[in-house]
Design a protein that fits this description.
Elements lengths: L23 H13 L19 H18 L7 H16 L8 H6 L11 E8 L9 E9 L3 H9 L6 E9 L9 E2 L16 E4 H19 L5 H7 L2 H18 L18 H24 L5 H15 L10 H15 L3 E4 L2 E4 L3 H20 L4 H15 L21 H4 L12 H16 L5 H8 L1
Parallel strand pairs: 3-5
Antiparallel strand pairs: 1-2, 2-3, 4-5, 6-7
Helix pairs in contact: 1-2, 2-3, 6-8, 6-10, 6-15, 8-9, 8-10, 9-10, 9-11, 9-12, 10-11, 12-13
Length: 465
Amino acid sequence: MTEVLSPGTLDRSGMSGTDVTGHPQWAVLKEAVETIRPWQLKDGSIDFDAEDAPGRDEAARILERVARAVERLSPLLPHDAGYHRALAADLRRWAGGGFAVPDFLDSLLAFQPAADRRDGRQHLVVFPMYTQNGNPDRNLEAVVLRVVWPEWLAELERTRYDNPLFVPITFEDFTPGYDTDSAVLFPETVAVRQAPDRWTWGAIFCDREAARFRAVTDAAVATLGLELPEAAVRLVGDQELTQQTFVLWDMIHDRTHSHGDLPFDPFMIKQRAPFWMYGLEELRCDLTTFKEAVKLQAEGHPMGLGVQYTILFDRLFRFPVTGARTRNYDGLGGQLLFAYLHQHDAVRWTDNTLHIDWERAPQVTNQLCAEIETLYRDGIDRPKLVHWLAAYDLVAKYLSPHPGSVWAKGPEALDLSLPPRRLVDDVLPDEFPLSMFYEALAKKLREVIASTKGITGDSVLRSAA
């Protein structure tokens, strides 16, 4: 990795559009939503017989404030006029139905942010929904966001990495469900009467991804004594550059779920599978992105090298030590990448200092990608359980399973009379525990990881100023 990242080539045009968060009605809307949220149950309904529950008239009055605030803010965002009309109707229908389980399918179908992606375009979004890696309940949430769609990214999407449903975004302001670790806005999280035939967009907050990446990477580098190349130092030190780097990573990663030799539904949310299958799928998408970034760097694209750094550092430093150890598939993928690089001499931990062979790391990373691709290609001809076992063997080749694991003992230890989905019950919550290296690193990074809850790019830029 010798090419110098060139942030000067990036499109850094200013954000366009009217500032919704500066309008008095945004404060009214936000206050009303935050009043309603504590009244709601897990499914989004309100039980008026519960202790401390409001009266129906009070709930209807507060919800009407939300609807009216949306209507008054909507003229600032004419591109969302149809969505806001449907949203106001869904809000009032919810109140008219006695605040039962909310159904916002009509407004969800009307919201189409991927139909016309423009850099800096602002959206005001209100839905009853859970926030992934955040609030598990379908509470009413409001968020103001902006699209990140610079011309260089639009050109890559048009000509090379087609992904018409992908919407990269940044936070402007939000209600408590996003004062969490959640960095996505996905339509499948919204409370609806039935799922649409197909999803038409998916949005990722690149500013939160970039901000927490920079905080954790900076702390990890200092803790591990890692010497970074000049281009990596520049990337970690620049919030805007890191945001745009994450946008490219996310765009290629997202489309990879539906590309390649796939023996199973790439969106495994529809299946019950051992968590290492989720981990390998997410890692495959990241390593495929890494491989494309190597190609982009070879072609002279200024973002290719930065994407490699972000994938390496986020996967090696943040993923393994973030979140609980119960079926942590992203953590598992990070552990596997580190172990593979270490066992192939691309990473060394010597004298309490981490060393990365910057020339060898891309080669070894692409080698791991090839192993996973071979697993997938061979899996097309395998029964499901045989494929799961082969995937387990691949992971266990580089990571030590828990000593008490049934799966580690092989198929003879499993009750093969049961359907595969039942055998998932034999998977331990932490099937592949952290190594001693990561146990120590987790303790060192615990506080900085906790500090990134609710972080945004704007908050980082304000603190830097």
